[in-house]
Design brief:
Length: 118
């Protein structure tokens, strides 16, 4: 499974961005796709996830109500709609895929930079 993240950029506080994570290869082997972020000098943290087949969603408390994760199975793509962005959302965002629920985030894509100015 290969993952390609895109959609990052520079936005003012309060603005919106939509990230995309395109999956290719053996996508039938995906259980969940998740988004993670890492700010400079900080540990990577979990943001949100979605099951590949049923569309069940999971969110970290820090983004609930502001971010929405969705998927388009026809396009093998998972999206992260980010609204009401804050400067503390600034980070490199990466997507990852879990082959089985609970198996761990085995496949990783490259990151895309999101910068929120105050």
């Amino acid at each position: 499974v290969q993952l390609q993240a895109s959609g990052g950029g520079l936005v003012q506080a309060g603005g919106s961005l939509r990230l995309s994570c395109a999956a290719s290869g053996r996508t039938f082997g995906i259980s969940r796709v998740g988004w993670f972020r890492q700010a400079p000098g900080k540990e990577r943290e979990y943001v949100a996830a979605i099951t590949w087949s049923g569309g069940r969603t999971y969110y970290d408390d820090s983004v609930k109500g502001r971010f929405t994760i969705s998927r388009d199975n026809a396009k093998n793509t998972v999206y992260l709609q980010m609204n009401s962005l804050k400067p503390e959302d600034t980070a490199v965002y990466s997507c990852a895929a879990e082959p089985r629920l609970g198996a761990g985030w085995y496949y990783w894509g490259q990151g895309t930079q999101v910068t929120v100015s105050s």
